[in-house]
Specification:
The longest helix has 69 residues, at 14-82. The chain has 2 domains: 12-80; 86-178, 2-Layer Sandwich (Alpha-Beta Plaits). Strands 1, 2, 3, 4 and 5 form a 5-stranded antiparallel sheet that branches. The protein has helices spanning 3-10, 14-82, 89-102, 135-146, and strands at 106-107, 113-116, 123-134, 153-161, 167-178. The chain contains 4 helices and 5 strands. By secondary structure, the chain is an alpha+beta fold.
Amino acid sequence: MDIGRLIKAVLPYRFFWGICCFLLIINLVGYTAVIKNQQKEITNLQDLYTAKREKSVSLSRKNDAVIRYYKAKESLTAFRKKLPAMEAIADQVRQIKDIVNKHGLSAEKITFKPDKAKTYNLWKYTASFTVSGQYAKLKTFLADLQNLRSIFCIEALSMSRSNGNKRVKMRLGLATYCR
């Protein structure tokens, strides 16, 4: 097809083709003028959003740490309230003696010694004593000691048995805390 025939085919419709070319030029100018500027603004807005989001996330992390601190503080306060008062140490000794007697064991005198704990303003009471009896009864004694409502920490435990004797001696180191 030669150019002359193409021009003859387009000339009768020049108004239509003129409008199409005009719209194409307007579209290209509009794209470069508006869209390119909008893309720059969109990039700036995304950067601004990212910066604010990172700041928000870092604040929420700080807030999470603060929330964890206050929850831990509440837990410690609740724990302290559950600890017995210093005056209740005699009741705790009586509970231990009752368990010893319940299982038919023999124990030496149980005396708790007070010591001021360095943290949390608590008193630590420690006692070391020997309990003797059959091995099975000593095991149930320890189980009952564990099931008491009072908090006892076993700091030391040693057992020894005499030759030919069914009795076992258990040296027990206990600690408890009071407010």
